[in-house]
Write a structure and sequence with these properties.
316 residues, Jelly Rolls, 3 helices, Pirin, seven-stranded antiparallel sheet, Pirin_N_dom, 26 strands, single chain, metal ion binding
């Protein structure tokens, strides 16, 4: 699970240890196991948020762990052209490559450690496919796709595309150097990630060495979730077990703790949180709106071709 890595974590800026008197460690509310399924043209996913109350996820709507799968030649699959409205899609690649193209002229190729951030806003069509050379050769494919809700005031914002290469991600470590912390979006301990968001959020991919632990300062007005991408360990000071394919939901507080089990395998965890929007959610298929009437309008606009046309030339 390479993503972005470094030879010496001790050369990186350290995340300060939170003050236990002012930054109470968040308790673990629940640990759930993501069921397996298939997306697009048939690539395997784990539905990370299945069974979790939407109020605990807010401002997030949906998250898939794509893979981890080692494709044979001719096996890699993607998605056909499809529409979105009312939210943002964040695709973070850990292994392999994915090509994106959309009806607004955005797109590109993302590989290990890269992120594509698409604001669907008022409406967009897009497609995600493995590049031809990966289809021919096969190979390892692993990533995350996250849906971030937009508040009513931004539901009809102009579509936007951000290409965030891995070398732009802020790299930090824990006080003892036992964790490599990649800040993709938002801010952690004064260090900002490159992703620009409509909704205040923080996205972090941490790799924790076997037997090590990390306590991250976390905004008290954000919710807090941790999804295990690989390995096994514990969450919270109560040391609740967590393993690949499981999601921990944390309660209130100003810090959160994640630890890796002793042994040979590090724990890779996707830590995310944001400021809850606290608005009604009407979601169906590729649209996330506030009311049923807005959903109906989204489908009508899509059928009438008002969400864009394909193909589009990529913007220079």
């Amino acid at each position: 699970m390479p993503a972005v890595t470094v030879e010496n974590t001790l050369a990186l800026p350290r995340v300060p240890q939170p003050d236990p008197l002012t930054d109470r460690d968040r308790p673990v509310v629940s640990v759930t196991t993501a069921p397996k399924g298939y997306e697009g043209e048939g690539f395997p996913v784990r539905r990370a948020f299945a069974g979790v109350d939407l109020a605990d996820l807010d401002p997030f709507i949906h998250m898939d762990q794509m893979g981890e799968v080692d494709y044979g030649p001719g096996e890699p699959k993607g998605t056909p052209w499809h529409p979105h409205r009312g939210f943002e899609t964040v695709t973070y690649m850990i292994d392999g490559e994915m090509a994106h193209s959309d009806s607004n002229g955005g797109g590109g190729l993302i590989g290990g450690g890269d992120t594509q951030w698409m604001t669907a806003g008022a409406g967009i069509l897009h497609i995600e496919t493995p590049p031809e050379h990966l289809v021919v050769s096969g190979g390892l494919f692993h990533g995350v796709q996250l849906w971030v809700n937009l508040p009513k005031s931004n539901k009809m914002a102009a579509p936007r595309y951000q290409d965030i290469t891995g070398n732009k991600v802020a790299l930090l470590t824990s006080p003892d150097g036992g964790a490599l912390i990649r800040v993709i979006a938002g801010e952690l301990a004064g260090h900002a990630g490159p992703g620009s968001t409509h909704t205040p959020i923080t996205l972090v991919h941490a790799t924790i060495a076997p037997g090590a632990s990390v306590t991250l300062p976390w905004r008290a007005d954000f919710n807090a979730l941790a999804y295990a991408l690989g390995g096994a360990g514990t969450v919270g000071t109560e040391r609740r077990p967590i393993a690949m394919g499981q999601l921990a939901v944390f309660g209130a507080g100003g810090a959160l703790t994640v630890a890796a089990n002793p042994g040979d395998t590090p724990l890779d965890v996707f830590v995310l949180g944001g400021q809850p929007i606290r608005e009604p959610v009407a979601a169906y298929g590729p649209f996330v709106m506030n009311t049923r009437n807005e959903l109906i309008q989204a489908f009508e606009d899509f059928k009438a071709g008002r969400l864009g046309t394909i193909p589009a030339e990529h913007a220079e």
